[in-house]
Amino acid sequence: MSRRLSIVAIAALTLISTSSAWAQSGAAGATVATVNGAGANAWSSNVRASDAEVVSLLGDGIKKSSTLRALTDRLTKSDVIVYVRPDVIGKNGAQAQLSFLSSAGGFRYLVVHLPVGQSKTQQVAMLGYQLQHAVAIADAPSVNDSDSLRKEFERIGRVTLSANGRDFTFDSQAATDAKQRILRELSSDAPAPASTRVATTAK
What we know:
4-stranded mixed sheet, alpha/beta, two-stranded antiparallel sheet
């Protein structure tokens, strides 16, 4: 292996290690949100958060929205792991963003940056929107980096390039529909029903 390839390999392993360890970082005894909204071991769920407000948000959202619960259930049965992090620098009205982090050890790692300073209802709906995107990635084994993610959403949704021609955002009708369902569910005081069908991606 050449010196250049060795350096690249070490850098990749470092990124994967830091990405995977993120969910366990912080003070000992920190609560980590799991798929059922309970504080538990960081590795018990494929949707992970260690920020206290995001933990509470995820737990409440899963209790009140069957759509959000179904999305987290679907991801827990996949090879996709999603870290949810608060975005404290986003401007007012900023939207949640999903990025491809890394692929290693049979898992694909994504991160959702969730804007703070908005209503909890809007935050839960934005989270559900991005988790529907994560489900689309789970349904597409070919997505293993940012380039293949972009190609997949060019196929199933819409991709918007930034001014520099490299960065991009994406959306899909399935994610928009999931967000609207979650908003309706959150507006009701009734407990969420046991199950909801998750939209799957056409092959």
